Automatic annotation (TrEMBL), chain A:
Keyword entries, A-Z: Cell membrane, Membrane, Transmembrane, Transmembrane helix
GO cellular component, one term: plasma membrane
Protein name in the entry: ABC transporter permease
Species this protein is from: Kumtagia ephedrae
Pfam families on file: BPD_transp_2 (PF02653)
Lipoprotein as UniProt keyword: no
Recorded superkingdom: Bacteria
Amino acid sequence: MTWTDIVFWQIVLGGMLRLAAPIFLAALGEMITERAGTLNLGIDGIMTAGAFAAVVFAHMAGWQAGLLGAAAVGACYGALLAVSVIRLGANQIVIGIAISLIGAGLTSYLFQLWQPSGQMAIFVPLTPTWKVPFLSDIPFVGPILFRQNLMTYATFVALVVGIFVLAKTRIGIVLKAVGDDPAGAEMRGVDTALVRYVALTLGGALMGLAGAAITLGVLGAFNDGLTNGRGYVALAVVIIGRWSVPGAFAGALLFSFFESLGLRAQSGMSFVPTELFSILPYAMTLLALALTARAKIAPRSL
Amino acid sequence: MTGRTTDGVATELARILLGAAVLAAVVAALVWLAGANPLAALRALVHGAFGERYLLAETLVTAVPLAIVGLGVMPALRTGVFTIGSQGQLIAGAALSTAFVFSVPADEPVVLLTVGFMGGVLGGMLYALLPGLLRAYVQVNEILSTLLLNYIAGFALIWLLKGPLAAAAQTATPRSAPLPETSLVPSLLEGTRLHWGAAFVVLLAAGLMVWMRTRSGLLYRVFASNEGLAARLGLSRPRAVVTSFLFAGATAGLAGWLQVAGVAHTLYPSVDGGLGFGGILVAVLGGLRPLGIVLASLMFAALTTGAQGMQMGTSVPAAIAVVTQGLVLLIVAIGLQRKKRTA
């Protein structure tokens, strides 16, 4: 199968949606955090912790427990950051770096206790794949959009809910007010600290789920360093997408398109080194970051 | 100016003790979770870091690149440029110095060491130039650009080690050929891996201490608090940003060359091994002061080599070092803030 084949592109685009799930969920979590005027730099460590928790809990009690466990662990990290920054007033950049270290280190530590090196890797079943009746029979786009893993559909739902909540509900308006004009929001009776606690904790839960989307949506097992910096990519995607939900989704698709292309093209284009394909998604993200950087529309109190 | 009363000292001491107690409790709980006795583990850790001449030297071997990277990012962090790209710059320096050493048809140590040094510094600077320019002229967030570039450098290194820089012999994992004997940084302590690169730590720390007292050092300090004033005094924003990036890149690249020519003697994909990131932590924990950075890098290095000893002696995975480093950073960041508030 080569790149001139229509099936090749079908697989690439289907893979793109599947690989976009972890990045978009993490980016959504970061966006909620930043919209409230705070920053979570520990995103990659929280994703790692979520990815591991998902495997452990799924191994014990099925994928539903895996998702819950990942979200809970992510929420704990988000809350830890919230307490350190809001209650104790520490620098959020330094705390974010500390959390990314703790997330990666503690996960690696627990992983080695759970599965001492040299032992067979523990695999868990992926979240179920669901074929939407009729829709999945549409030529070309059907299999891409409607023969997907549960995590991908969850991403679609998160996209729609995210857009709706931010634009149309009181929750969204309060969140944006706290990020843009905390003093004004406080004067109107909004408890800004509470909003930030909730945003950071919910954001952390989404980052944990993003980790679960890697292990339960794609790999089926945990290994050290499996995020490969996707947390940082999610952070970039928030900026590229200009703090909007559809923008973050588009940014996630940009990264995952080149990631998926790389995975497929390695078999079809053996004359290009595989590392070049590994570099491409990161280079494209950096390029997009450079092209969109001039627009200054970040939440004002960030 | 009444902060230094006995009362102030007592609360500060109490704060430090509280932080240490929290840290000890969490780490002890983790060790206990691994089925080991925390006291026995602590003994194994101390022995692993300082117990024998060779182990002590290994701690110093790890501290050297940490201190060099940390001292290198110090001016940038003081200037308000949050570069996290030392990992990529270290890799670039290691790769370019290796390429230089292999491509120069010379056999004299003086030539090869000079060429290797220049390759390291130049590689690191070139790799820092892009995020520096992007920050200075297009306002690209430097935290993100440098993080992305770290991953790009990691993949590019593997490609180099499979292609242009690959060892002549077939190897299971990608790596370069061993460096020629004449290009290696001389050993400082017989029978250990400690090398003369340690001298760079002393030079850099002393140089930075002097620099902080010069007009240029003062200008950068002014820049951090009042950009407009610094610009009127001759230090524009682009210049401050790009210069501090280049300095950070040069030192990280230097550390990269030392890791190849002084420690491993072969370029492996794992040349960074967390040193780039660790160096930045050390800079923050050292309070962005040269002596503090050197002390913090010794502490971090002791923790790393000690944890490896502990892993061999007990059932505790060495990853406990990373957890501890993260916890230390967390507790110190919170503690510093409390101090500022009560002061």
